UniProtKB/TrEMBL annotation:
Oxidoreductase keyword on record: yes
Molecular function terms from GO: alcohol dehydrogenase (NADP+) activity; butanol dehydrogenase (NAD+) activity; metal ion binding; methylglyoxal reductase (NADPH) (acetol producing) activity
Domain (Alcohol dehydrogenase iron-type/glycerol dehydrogenase GldA) ranges: 9-179
Keyword Oxidoreductase: yes
Fe-containing alcohol dehydrogenase-like C-terminal domain segment(s): 193-390
Its EC number(s): 1.1.1.2
UniProt entry keywords in alphabetical sequence: Oxidoreductase
Top enzyme class: oxidoreductase
Protein name per its UniProtKB record: Alcohol dehydrogenase (NADP(+))
């Protein structure tokens, strides 16, 4: 097991009606002037925003709001939020929504605490992030896990880049998790969320290290729980117990606990990010479209690892033949994505068949224009990345 530091300061309030505690939690963490960030119209139509505003008003908290966050959140809207937060002298940012809203709120928080710095510089590493504004979350979508994670992803549409920022300043100070707030989600969003939760765990599980007994056991238990309850939720998204499990698994899947003691892989996420940046496809869909082809390309590095996944997560076993068992785990995972209605190749993703030049560009951009490799289970250079994209492109 490799050395690690684990610190997750996010206070979690889980269960029915917990959104009513929002004002108390903001005050507990020093907030007085709040910028509320949200996405489309669902938070308004459901009455959630009105309930939150009423709590803020009753507590004497000043607030303004910024809506319009979309999937694959953009740095442009976050910059607009920074200007608004600075103008109102905000000392707290409240995200009401899912991962896209939360990541936008994180960007606004960083910019508000560092006036004069373009927040994209934090995402590219040009400027080090050394301070931020407290962020709280009222979660409405079990998916990204951003409510407890040290990560945030934004897209710069001007240059067609999607980048992630990892920093302890990204950890929200509190997260309110009421599974009932998920009941109005479209089935496709539920399916994308289930996929994202699985992939946040799988990208920590398929790593070179094999001496993480506790972390591996936690990851396998979480994967089994998501698979079982995801099947229930996709049939009945108003099943409170199933959505409860998914919501909590979403937070655990990305708060680092399932990967402690290893380096993580994250190749599938990086492959998917380029698809989202270029084609504006849903994040979860980009992951399900790429996973099979990444897995088939890399599994022979360590078939034993995939065989363990097959036996401990899918209860699939081809006896002593680790390679056949490994392949069975890949088939089981892809079949599950299909059962959720998720795409498993480029055609199903809706981007058609790409030409050689487009595939070359995707691979080049995925290396940050030749500046990096991706992955740890198998280190992928530009040629290998291109190979994997080509497999997804050719599949029917």
């Amino acid at each position: 097991m490799r050395n690690f530091t684990y610190y997750v300061p996010t206070e979690v309030e889980f269960g029915k009606d917990t959104e009513h505690k929002v004002a108390d939690l903001i005050q507990k963490h020093g907030g007085h002037r709040v910028l509320v960030v949200y996405g489309g119209g669902s938070a308004q139509k459901s009455g959630l925003l009105d309930r939150i505003y009423k709590r803020l008003e009753d507590a004497g908290l000043e607030y303004q709001s910024l809506g319009g966050v979309k999937p694959n959140p953009t740095v442009d809207l976050a910059r607009k939020g920074v200007e608004q937060a600075i103008a109102m002298k905000a000392d707290f940012i409240l995200a009401v929504g899912g991962g896209s809203v939360i990541d936008t709120a994180k960007g606004i928080a960083h910019g508000n605490a560092n006036p004069g710095t373009d927040i994209w510089d934090f995402w590219t590493g040009t400027t080090n992030l050394r301070q931020s504004t407290p962020v709280g979350v009222v979660l409405t979508i079990p998916a990204a896990g951003s409510e407890t994670s040290a990560s945030a992803v934004l897209t710069n549409t001007e240059i067609g880049q999607k980048r992630g920022l990892s920093s302890e300043f990204n950890r929200p100070v509190f997260a309110i998790l009421n599974p009932e707030l998920t009941f109005t989600l479209p089935l496709y969003q539920v399916a994308c969320g289930i996929t994202d939760i699985l992939m946040h765990t799988l990208d920590r599980y398929f790593v070179p290290e094999e001496d993480n007994e506790t972390s591996d056991a936690l990851a396998e238990a979480l994967l089994r729980t998501v698979i079982r309850n995801g099947t229930i939720a996709i049939k009945n998204p108003q099943d409170y117990q199933a959505m409860s499990e998914l919501m909590w698994c979403g937070s655990l899947s990305h708060n680092s606990i399932t990967g402690l003691g290893s380096r993580g892989d994250w190749a599938v996420h990086q492959l998917g990010h380029e698809l989202s940046a270029k084609f504006d496809v849903a994040h979860g869909a980009s992951l399900s479209a790429m996973w099979k082809f990444w897995a088939l390309y890399v599994y022979q590095v360590n078939p034993r690892r995939f065989a363990r996944y097959a036996r401990n997560v899918w209860a699939v076993d081809a006896g002593r033949d680790d390679e056949q068992t490994a392949l069975a785990s890949i088939e089981a995972t892809v079949a599950y994505f299909k059962s959720l209605g998720m795409p498993t190749n480029f055609k199903e993703l809706g981007i058609g068949t790409l030409g050689d030049a487009e595939l070359d560009e995707l691979a080049y951009r995925c290396t940050y224009f030749g500046a990096r490799t991706i992955g740890n289970f198998m280190v992928l250079d530009q040629k290998k990345i291109r190979d994997i994209y080509s497999l997804a492109n050719q599949a029917v």
